[in-house]
Amino acid sequence: MATQAANSELLFSGSDWDFTKLSRVYDAIEAIAVEELHLDIYPVQMEIISSQ
Questions:
Q1: pTM greater than 0.70
Q2: How many distinct structural domains can be found in the chain?
Q3: Angle at CA of residue 16, ends 44 and 30, nearest 5°
Q4: Is residue 23 included in any domain, yes or no?
């Protein structure tokens, strides 16, 4: 399997997550699953759980 590590960029940096970063990472995972691995995927459900 060929890798694209030389052309890839980090999807995120740091430890702060927001819906924009989560969506970007999920979109990248979805693209790999569908286009490269030919997998069927389920819709994602994101929830915020606070520590309070």
A1: no
A2: 1
A3: 25
A4: yes
**CA atoms of 13 and 48, how far apart (whole Å):** 20
- For 37, residues 6+ apart whose C-beta sits below 8 A from its C-beta are none
| Side chain identity at residue 25, one-letter code | V
Low-confidence ranges of the chain (pLDDT < 70): 1-8
Report the b/e string of 17-32 with b at 16+ CB within 10 A.
Answer: eeeeeeeeeeeeeeee
Domain membership of residue 2 (yes or no) is no
Distance of CA 30 to the CA centre of its chain: 7
The helix (run of H) or strand (run of E) holding residue 31 is: helix 19-31
Question: What domain range is 35 assigned to?
Answer: 15-47
